[in-house]
Amino acid sequence: MALSFAVVASSSSIMCKAINANNHSHLQDLSYIKRAALISDKSAGFTSPHPNFGCVIVTPSVEVVGEGYLYAQGTKPAEVLAVEAAGERCRGATAYVNMEPGDCHGDDTAVSALVQAGITRAVIGMRHPLQHLRGNAIRALRSQGLQVDVLGEDMQSKLVEEARKACLLVNLPFVHRAASRVPFSVLKYAMTLDGKIAASSGHAAWISSKLSRNRVFELRGRSDAIIVGGNTVRRDNPRLTARHGGGHMPIRIVLSQSLDLPEEANLWDLSDVSTVVVTQRGARRSFQRYLASKGVEVFAFVAPKIIGGKNAPSPVGELGMVEMSQALDLIDVCFEQIGPDMLISGFLQPIPDLTPTIPSEDETFAIDPTVAPFETSIIFFYKTWDLYGAFSNFSPHPIQMPDEDGNYVTWFSVEHYYQANKFIGVSNPLAQDCIDKIKSAKSPEEAARMGRLTQRRQPHLVRSDWESVKIDVMYRALKCKFSIYPHLNSMLLSTAGSVLVEASPHDLFWGGGRDGEGLNYLGRLLMKLRSEFLGESSAASENTCIAL
């Protein structure tokens, strides 16, 4: 009996230790996933249209040896940066990522980095929201022998749900867009304690404190666009800039049905960022020409002030509700004091499911027959995470091109090379300085921003023959890109017989435009290049047959 009792006691002790160890490991996993989500948010606003990605690498001895996050569109994946930081200490380690990697360029860069570095386990916060990418990286990692745990699937508990929520919130706009196919919108306003957003005279500067306004600038810097109505333009003459010392600047959009807008306004100054005016057809055509020549999470700032006045405007107008049961409820409401103000934030609708069901084109057509699926003979591409996103001149594929002296120079992307060529050959030190800055830009978007901004502000630095050579510059860069990357060459050749359309709604030269009114020169160049490659392949086949 004594011996039996001793054995049972020993087994219980071992079992308790095992359970405690598992719980401890479980908590560590959740802690590092939250860390990955936290660091992924460092570049919010810059990564668009990609999600915010973060990666943390931890050794079996529970030591963080590498971290990385996606800096911007077209830059190295977070997993690659984390592996580079960890070096040889990746062997046998665990990689924590807030979202399943998305292969946007046909080369499995993130997955390959983890596998080749010797990572043996990956913990993933959530699956990729885009249907054509969801599950691909998880299957690829498992096929290479890695243990892959997905929060909410392989791991479940209340604490797991909190960690999943952290992963969701850091990419909520992206998830919402994938699930609903409409942008995630934020309604922001500042009001007094008695519910007014301006005095009866319309004066509103300033209701909120400087600290609150700084938070607004931070919010703008995380957004793709800022939308205001005509009244705001007429009364406030806003700039709608992020004012955070450079970096990402969201597009400014003005909605005005009558186009009754002033000729002089800060928004018509396009030196820092572009402005889009949306109006109805036929409204003030002369003013439209003038403008052309110029080249909902809810955030409510409540200030401890009372202004009164029956006619003073309130933040929300008539919604047609007559009963309290019709009121719009906020969920996940948060309160935060910012200086003398109170920031109240919440969501108008339930948070989208972590793995939303995105309808296929056929399913969409069945639901709404007016939404016809794209014809199979037309391939659209635009964002680098599209199925054919690697066709974009913004994809992160370095190329080597000869300089003026015939020496080969490496450019981080086609866009880097294209933008720098605007200023090549100009005998002005400022032009060379601009070329150097574009070459060292961390992302294609930064290179594009630098080139466009300099072209607008200092047109004398642009080479005189630019308009006549820019198509050839782009073609040479594209040819280099699709010649040195076999998987890209194969992808391009696989589209034989299809029309390629760069689907940018704004760029009417390189893109197809919103309604097909664009010139689609990028698509044309890719089809020309495809034809050239197919011709070379055909000739090579004929030569092979003759030799045989």
TrEMBL record:
A cellular-component GO term for this protein:
chloroplast
| Catalytic activity, EC | 1.1.1.193
Pathway in which the depicted protein is active: Cofactor biosynthesis; riboflavin biosynthesis; 5-amino-6-(D-ribitylamino)uracil from GTP: step 3/4
Q: Which UniProt keywords apply?
A: Chloroplast, Glycosidase, Hydrolase, Multifunctional enzyme, NADP, Oxidoreductase, Plastid, Transit peptide
What stretch or stretches form a coiled coil here?
none
Query: Which Pfam families has this protein been placed in?
Result: dCMP_cyt_deam_1, NADAR, RibD_C
Q: Which GO terms describe its biological process?
A: carbohydrate derivative metabolic process; riboflavin biosynthetic process
The UniProt record lists the CMP/dCMP-type deaminase domain at 27-149
SUPFAM superfamilies, sorted: Cytidine deaminase-like, Dihydrofolate reductase-like, YbiA-like
Q: Which reaction does it catalyse?
A: 5-amino-6-(5-phospho-D-ribitylamino)uracil + NADP(+) = 5-amino-6-(5-phospho-D-ribosylamino)uracil + NADPH + H(+); 2,5-diamino-6-hydroxy-4-(5-phosphoribosylamino)-pyrimidine + H2O = 2,5,6-triamino-4-hydroxypyrimidine + D-ribose 5-phosphate; 5-amino-6-(5-phospho-D-ribosylamino)uracil + H2O = 5,6-diaminouracil + D-ribose 5-phosphate
A GO molecular function annotation here is: hydrolase activity, hydrolyzing N-glycosyl compounds
Q: Does the keyword Oxidoreductase apply?
A: yes
Q: Which family does it belong to?
A: In the C-terminal section; belongs to the YbiA family.
Name of the protein described by the UniProt record: Riboflavin biosynthesis protein PYRR, chloroplastic
Per the UniProt record, the source organism is Gossypium tomentosum
